[in-house]
Automatic annotation (TrEMBL):
Occurrences of domain Calcineurin-like phosphoesterase (ranges): 1-196
SUPFAM superfamilies assigned: Metallo-dependent phosphatases
Keyword Hydrolase: yes
Protein name: Metallophosphoesterase
GO molecular function, one term: hydrolase activity
């Protein structure tokens, strides 16, 4: 028996940080979660899996219209024609009380109730699935405590949306601890909610498959589902499968020693090409950080709009589909002697920037100024929120512009 375990699909969720830059290609981004889900269903059909598990957050929230539900049911119809059953629990994003629209489920899809845990034994399969959906978003009790005992003679699966013990940094919904799950006597715990793949215990297995498609830069790397193979009532193989169609990466390019813009941009172009190769044919979403002591620091930091445009132009030459989510300039100027008055001025600036009270005043002034900037433009510029990283970038750009004006740094 082969079972495909997925979670956190978030159908029709937007990809944060990219939509504003997408222009005419916005459709490629808004359909990313659908295309990843279709890829998973394609695999299930081709591989002939026996069962699909979805451990919560199938949807990103209430449907904007019925198209989201119709898309899901169209994929379920494909599985139904091949006799593949599907078990679903609702999570915090698609909790029962958050969904105002619904469509009838096909008979091959089991959605677990939210008022209590229950057991489903699909006909013809030697497996018992125990689960419970979220009745509301903010579930703070341990749902696993009410799960039924294992069914003798069957492979027992606990289907649960949970933050587990919270050590993986997610909102602590339906908290539980691994020893308690292990002590339940099930053979496999199919978990959801944590977006990074993690195996919390082996034999019995306690597994987070991660989400199916990364939605922002804090979800880097391959994304997909977990395939488990069962023989003689034991898990004989566990395999991570990638189904994502767009992969996120934080890319830092060291420009240390670059003496000219040509050198700097050549190094950036090489790094983008290498990252695209590592994406295994998928589209790539990049947060680019430029670092190192370089003679072109003032050029890069002093004109961030041009720097971003130059990097965007490089993505067009990278040889594949590359989306640039943000460019952060963290370079520094090479050590050099300037005019005594300028040296004194920059020393004063450095002292101001290193003083928490002065930085707080600057932040407050900038926040006030940013209230006059349209939210979409502020978000596209990476200034929502104005956190320490964004503030540091703005101050570095201002210092570099001043340095260029005073010292007439060459391009």
């Amino acid at each position: 028996m082969r079972i495909l375990h997925a979670a956190d699909i978030h159908l029709d969720s937007p990809l944060s940080g990219l939509i504003a830059r997408a222009g005419g290609q916005v459709g490629d981004l808004t359909t990313a979660t659908r295309r990843a889900f279709t890829a998973m269903i394609d695999y299930a059909l081709e591989a002939g899996v026996d069962l699909v598990l979805i451990a919560g957050d199938l949807y990103d929230g209430d449907w904007r219209d019925f198209s989201t539900g119709l898309f899901f049911l169209s994929q379920m119809a494909r599985l139904e024609r091949q006799g593949i059953r599907v078990a679903v629990v609702q999570g915090n994003h698609d909790a029962e009380n958050r969904m105002t629209r619904s469509l009838r489920w096909p008979p091959t899809v089991k959605v677990f109730r939210s008022d209590r845990a229950e057991t489903w034994i699909p006909e013809g399969l030697e497996v018992a699935i125990h689960g419970r959906s979220f009745p509301r978003r903010d579930v703070t009790e341990d749902l696993s405590a009410g799960y039924p005992p294992p069914v003798a003679g069957l492979f027992n699966i606990g289907l649960l949306h949970t933050a587990a013990d919270g050590r993986l940094g997610h909102t602590p919904y339906a908290p539980c601890d691994v020893p308690t799950l292990v002590g339940k006597g099930y053979d496999y715990w199919a978990l959801g909610h944590v977006h990074g793949r993690a195996i919390l215990h082996e034999r019995p297995w306690v597994v987070f498959p991660g989400n199916l498609q990364a939605r922002h830069v804090n979800e880097p790397g391959a994304k997909g589902a977990t395939l488990l193979t069962i023989d003689g009532g034991e898990v004989t193989a566990l395999e991570a499968l990638a189904f994502d169609v767009l992969r996120w990466v934080r890319l830092e390019v060291d420009l240390g020693g670059c003496a000219s813009p040509q050198q700097a941009y050549g190094r950036i172009e090489t790094a983008l090409a290498e990252a695209l190769t590592q994406a295994e044919g998928r589209a790539l979403a990049v947060r680019l950080t430029l670092s190192g002591a370089t003679a072109v620091h003032d050029l890069l930091a002093g004109d961030p709009e041009r720097t971003t445009a130059e990097c965007l132009a490089l993505t067009e030459r990278a040889g594949g589909e590359v989306w640039l989510e943000k460019v952060a300039v963290a370079t520094t100027p090479p050590r050099q002697d300037g005019a005594p008055a300028a040296d004194e001025l920059f020393a004063v600036i450095a002292r101001i920037l290193e003083t928490p009270e002065e930085r707080a005043v600057l932040r407050a002034d900038l926040e006030q100024a940013l209230t006059r900037v349209p939210p979409t433009i502020r978000q596209a510029a990476g200034l929502t929120p104005l956190d320490e990283q964004a503030l540091a970038g703005l101050l570095a750009a201002a210092e570099a512009t001043l340095r260029r004006r005073l010292l007439d740094s060459p391009e």
